Amino acid sequence: MRWLVAIALLLLSSCGGSERLSISEVEVLSVKGDEYPTSAVLRLDVKNSAGAFTLKQCRLRFGIEGRKQVVVTLTEKIKLRRGEQRVTLPIKISIVRNSLTMKLREALAQHDASQIEVDGEWWIRKGLLSKRGVIDSTPIERLLTDEELTRVWSVMDENKK
């Protein structure tokens, strides 16, 4: 299930809500666990035009048919300054093993974002202000742009196991 890491990294990097980031490069540095990973470390090249902020926490849940099978959690704060930079993104992955997990895996393997749902929450700190955001349950295809989805599929294909 290493391909799940690709979706996690793009969504985690977008957790700043209006603080949209542009990701130019994605690299999976390490994944613990084989078929069902428990953690991963990712590196991405980011362009941040919104100003410096810290992504303090982020938790996303992925599922299919209204039930969540995978939870991805950011394990360390990520500081993003204005401009271009390389960021390391450590995540923890929890996966429920059931028949819906297989459907989720199938949808990802077929690059079918319409069936995959995500919800979650994030906390950022920008200057003296802290902000919490919520992502209501929504299909991934509505959350990501076509360019971001193409990048997700590309990273998944590069990191299949």
Tell me the number of structural domains: 1
The run of helices and strands is HEEEEEEHEEHH
Largest sheet: 8 strands, antiparallel
Overall CATH class? Mainly Beta
Beta strands, count: 8
Short description:
By secondary structure, this protein is an alpha+beta fold. The protein is built from 4 helices and 8 strands; from the N terminus they run H-E-E-E-E-E-E-H-E-E-H-H.
Walk me through what this model shows.
This protein has 161 residues and is an alpha+beta fold. It has one domain (4-158): Immunoglobulin-like. It is built from four helices and eight strands, in the order αββββββαββαα. Strands 1, 2, 3, 4, 5, 6, 7 and 8 form an eight-stranded antiparallel sheet that branches. Helix 1 packs antiparallel against helix 4. The chain is globular, with a radius of gyration of 15 Å. The mean pLDDT is 83.
Keywords:
single chain, about 160 residues, alpha+beta, Immunoglobulin-like, eight-stranded antiparallel beta sheet, 8 strands, about 50% strand, globular
List the helices and strands and how they pair.
Blueprint: H1 4-13, E1 21-32, E2 39-48, E3 53-64, E4 67-74, E5 78-80, E6 83-95, H2 99-109, E7 117-126, E8 129-139, H3 140-143, H4 146-158
Antiparallel strand pairs: 1-2, 2-6, 3-4, 3-5, 3-7, 4-6, 7-8
Helix pairs in contact: 1-4
